[in-house]
């Protein structure tokens, strides 16, 4: 886990990590959320709707924006305040995702960071983007 | 930039932050008169204003502001 303090942060600071989506993740998300929409749990239904496989929950793949902020940027002292997400392409089980974030703006008075973040797949296609706002509780 | 021009731009920022297209602010507007003006929206407002006008506020300056009019006056000074 990264332990950036507010004084360590600068505009342009970047962090990233990778993760591969598994069937187990999908099962756990289903248990937690209760989202039984067939697009996520029924392969045949998803294929009928034009997808190659069942579609990974958007908020499952987006949960890694939480990890980006809470573990990588800024890490330990993060206090998440807002996440604004836009989805652009579907994610499927087995996809290897790269979650990247870059500090775009620092509110010095209130110790808030604005982070522009993206998730790309193994084909370097952007599957979603997000604006993350986080405070720091380093004092 | 005139005070009125600053005021109008700040009003647009308020409308965006509070998701209220017909929100009308006045010099006397404050967190007491705008229902959704909580601490997080306050930070959002300050950040949006700093970015739009390319200015920075010090925490001490912000803590002494009692209403929108006082903020606009401070901005007029900074942008002079």
* Helical residue percent band of chain B: 55-70%
- Quick one: which chains have the greatest interface? A-B, 10 and 13 residues
Content of β-strand of chain B: under 5%
Radius of gyration of chain B: 12 Å
Number of helices of chain A: 5
Please state the average pLDDT score of chain A. Answer: 97
Low-confidence stretches of chain B: none
Would you kindly provide a brief summary of this structure?
Chain A is of the alpha+beta class and about 140 residues long. Chain A contains 5 helices and 5 strands; from the N terminus they run βαααααββββ.
List keywords for this structure.
heterodimer; A: 139 residues; alpha+beta; Thiol Ester Dehydrase, Chain A; five-stranded antiparallel β-sheet; 5 strands; 25% helix; elongated; B: 80 residues; mainly alpha; Non-ribosomal Peptide Synthetase Peptidyl Carrier Protein, Chain A; globular
Structural summary, described in words:
The complex is a heterodimer of chains A (139) and B (80). With 139 residues, chain A is α+β, with helices and mostly antiparallel strands. Chain A has a single domain, classed as Thiol Ester Dehydrase, Chain A. Chain A has a 5-stranded antiparallel beta sheet with strand order 1-3-4-5-2. The radius of gyration of chain A is 16 Å and the shape is elongated. The relative contact order of chain A is 0.24. Chain B is mainly alpha-helical. Chain B has one domain: ACP-like (Non-ribosomal Peptide Synthetase Peptidyl Carrier Protein, Chain A, Orthogonal Bundle), CATH 1.10.1200.10. Chain B has 4 helices and no strands. In chain B, helix 1 crosses helix 2. The mean pLDDT of chain B is 94. Chains A and B meet through loops of A and helix 2 of B.
């Amino acid at each position: 886990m990264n332990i950036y303090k507010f004084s360590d942060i600068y505009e342009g600071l970047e962090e990233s990590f990778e993760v591969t989506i598994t069937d187990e993740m999908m099962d756990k998300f289903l248990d937690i959320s209760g989202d039984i929409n067939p697009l996520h749990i029924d392969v045949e239904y998803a294929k009928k709707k034009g997808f190659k496989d069942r579609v990974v929950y958007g908020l499952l793949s987006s949960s890694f924006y939480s990890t980006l902020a809470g573990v990588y940027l800024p890490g330990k002292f993060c206090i998440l305040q807002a996440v604004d997400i836009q989805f652009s392409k579907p994610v499927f089980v087995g996809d290897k995702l790269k979650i990247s974030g870059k500090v775009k703006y620092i509110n010095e008075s209130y110790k808030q960071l604005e982070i522009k973040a993206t998730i790309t797949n193994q084909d370097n296609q952007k599957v979603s983007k997000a604006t993350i706002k986080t405070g720091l509780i380093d004092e | 930039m005139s005070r009125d021009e600053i005021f109008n731009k700040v009003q647009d920022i308020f409308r965006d932050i509070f998701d209220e297209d017909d929100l009308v602010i006045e010099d006397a507007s404050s967190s007491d008169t705008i229902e959704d003006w909580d601490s997080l929206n306050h930070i959002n407002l300050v950040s949006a204003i700093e970015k739009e006008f390319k200015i920075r506020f010090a925490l001490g300056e912000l803590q002494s502001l009692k209403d929108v009019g006082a903020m606009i006056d401070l901005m007029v000074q900074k942008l002079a």
